[in-house]
TrEMBL record:
This is Integral membrane protein. It comes from the Bacteria. The chain crosses the membrane at residues 43-63. It comes from Ornithinimicrobium kibberense. Residues 78-93 have a biased composition (Basic and acidic residues). The keyword Transmembrane helix applies. Residues 78-139 are annotated as: Disordered. Keywords: Membrane, Transmembrane, Transmembrane helix. Residues 115-129 have a biased composition (Low complexity).
């Protein structure tokens, strides 16, 4: 890409050099558009077109840069919203898990005592890690 860019710059320099040499000593060009009457050398006419093209290219570049920045900001906002949603889900799950071990008014916890859980797939000597793995399945 850099090589192609350098070749284009060299081509543009060659065209400008050609315009300098080819228009040296030529008569001025007359432009008549009603109110606008100009008489200028061909080199100045060429340079005016070159400046107009440069301004148009700068405008296109600014539009592209602005669009890329807007896309980048929108992507970042979308990612931050996704992270916040996941954090909220984790907070809700953590809150739900902590209510299982919280004592109720009768003095017992909201979850069965460790080792006394009698459900499908449980054994009589279950440990706390099995209860935690049961909670992890909800994620």
């Amino acid at each position: 890409m850099i090589i192609i860019g350098l070749l284009l710059i060299l081509l543009a320099a060659a065209v400008v050099a050609y315009m300098l040499l080819a228009t040296a000593g030529t008569a001025a060009v007359s432009i008549d558009y009603g109110i606008l009457n100009l008489e200028m050398p061909p080199l100045w006419l060429y340079l005016a077109g070159l400046a107009t093209l440069a301004v148009a290219a700068l405008g296109f570049w600014m539009v592209g840069a602005g669009a890329r920045a807007k896309t980048r900001r929108a992507r970042e906002v979308r990612e931050l919203r996704k992270q916040a949603k996941e954090a909220d889900r984790r907070a809700v799950r953590t809150g739900d898990a902590s209510t299982l071990d919280r004592p109720t008014a009768s003095g017992s916890t909201g979850a069965p005592a460790r080792g006394t859980h009698s459900g499908p797939g449980s054994t009589s000597g279950s440990t706390g890690s099995q209860d935690r793995s049961r909670l992890d399945l909800d994620r």
